[in-house]
Amino acid sequence: MYIGLKHAHSGLAYLALAALLIVMIYALIGALSNREFTEKDRKFAMIAFILSHIQLLVGLILYFVSPVGFSLLTGGGAMGDKIARLTALEHPVINIIAIVLISVGYIRAKKLTESRAKFRSIYMMYGIGLVLILSRIPWHSWLG
Ligand code: HEM
């Protein structure tokens, strides 16, 4: 179960990161070109929103079965080690904050009425979320 979840979390990371980046750039171009925000734009933003939520769900389960997740926090010693602190504390906390911001961006865009404001809500919140996520990826184990 652990290995399967770790692979799923690793593979989904590519999809979620690519979707967030593409939707963010797409929304930025939409705002700059002053065009109307359509239902297609909303659905497009929803794909990145859903992918990041699936990643959140898989991450939460992984956190409790992984040897470098919650067990490190309870076992002690994690706070003194940089890599252990990353997977046991910083990566989960920062990513949950990032996904909350992405959700605010998407939900606010649905409620706003002006097209430019809708695009702005998406590119700003998805952009901040993406920077936060990228700042706390365990690169050493993912691509190393
Ligand atoms: C969009 C959000 C997220 C992205 C893009 C992401 C991405 C990643 C990546 C690329 C890895 C390294 C995988 C590997 O070494 O094969 C990883 C590891 C991990 N992630 Fe996430 N993650 C996200 C959210 C979360 C959340 C919310 C949690 C927990 C609440 C979480 C828990 C973990 C844990 C515990 C590991 C270490 C797994 C291990 O090596 O045993 N992740 N994550």
Count of all domains:
1
Task: Please estimate the helix content.
Answer: over 70%
Q: Strand count, sense and closure of the main sheet?
A: none
Structural class: mainly alpha
Would you identify the regions where 5 or more consecutive residues have pLDDT less than 50? none
Determine the N-to-C terminus distance: 22 Å
Ligands in the model, by name, code or SMILES, are: protoporphyrin IX containing FE
Number of helices: 6
Transmembrane segments: 12-32, 44-65, 92-109, 121-139
Keywords: Membrane, Transmembrane, Transmembrane helix
Protein name: 50S ribosomal protein L27
Would you kindly provide a written description of the structure presented here, covering whatever features stand out?
With 144 residues, the chain is an all-alpha fold. It has one domain. It is 83% helix and 0% strand. It contains six helices and no strands. Protoporphyrin IX containing FE binds next to helix 1, helix 2, helix 4 and helix 6. This is 50S ribosomal protein L27. Keywords: Membrane, Transmembrane, Transmembrane helix. It comes from Mongoliitalea lutea.
